[in-house]
Amino acid sequence: MLYDIYNTKFQEENKIFITKQNKIKVTLSVSEIMEFLEIKPKFRGINLENKMLPYKSSIDCINKIEFEQTPKDKFDTLMKASLELRNGILDITNGKV
Question: What letter would DSSP give residue 96?
Fold first, then answer.
C-alpha cells in the first residue's frame, strides 16, 4: 500500500527522470556523457581501445534505481553506486585522490 501511494505521488517525476535517462543513453557516447556531467578529464579514465570503462559498475547501479520498489532500496542502491564510483576513482588515480 505504501509503495502504491509513493508511486502515485511521484509518477510524473519518475516519467521525466526515465525519459531524460533514456535520451542520454541513446544519444550520447560515454565520453559525451562524462563531458555533459562535467567530469574532470583526470577522473574519466576511459580507454576505448582496451574497452576500459572504470565506472561501469557504478553506472549499472544507477541504472537499477528506477527498478527498485521502495525508497530504502533506492537509497541503498544509490549508496552502492557511490561506493563503486569512489573505488573507480581510486583505481584511476592509483589511490592519490
Answer: -
